[in-house]
Amino acid sequence: MSLSTRERERELQALAGEIAEMGGLAERLVMDSVTALTRIDPGRARSVIEADARIDAMQRSVEHHAVGLIAAHRPNDKPLREMVAALRIASDLERVGDLAKNNAKRVLAIEGRAYPPRVAIGLEHMSDIALEQLKSVLDAFTSQDLSAASDVRNRDDEIDAIYTSIFRELLTYMMEDPRNITFCTHLLFCAKNIERIGDHATNIAENIHYLVTGEQPREERAKADSSAYLSAAFSDETPGRM
Predict the structure, then answer these.
(1) Protein fold of 5-234
(2) Alpha helices (H) in 110-219, listed in sequence order
(3) What are the 10-residue block averages of pLDDT along the chain, 242 residues in total?
(4) pTM for this model (two decimals)
């Protein structure tokens, strides 16, 4: 059944609202997981793990809504791009929720341990930037602000640089005392997961570019992660999923 232009606009606004709600929840899960990590707070970590099921359900709802709209509207170029972008962004936000949950699980694994202040400061700083990027790109999606989305994409190298610094710091601790290896490996996973949250914010920025222009960005994304040769070993994400 084909829908009128007014009905289509109303449904697209509702779809954008679902993305905004999902983004807000993803931000909260990341914030809570970082707080749990830096304070080694098992109770908060468990609440993040439990809340991840909600963001998974929201992704399924967005997919169902968007696919239904595509089938009903037979839309022209811009509405179709809005639906495709919504599907892609929902997938990125679901992964952000998973990464927050995975960090929360690692908090439970390192409960009772204190870690180096420089590493804690680095994790907090990287998390602050990742959260700022996530908030900015979600605002850019709501307003379809191409300039703001480009700013998010162009700042991705800041998170990469901090991750590399943390990576080197933790390797130093592991080499100094082999008893630190298990604990520091958990922190390496956490740091990489936060770096991946920044990558997902950048993915969303690229989808906003596609939504507004109908094209993917032509220039390569800036990267400053010099630990790339070991990055795949320290990530809780499924290989190949962006």
Answers:
(1) Methane Monooxygenase Hydroxylase; Chain G, domain 1 (1.20.58)
(2) 117-143, 146-154, 156-176, 181-213
(3) 73 92 95 91 94 94 86 71 91 96 94 81 93 96 94 91 94 90 93 96 95 82 55 53 38
(4) 0.83
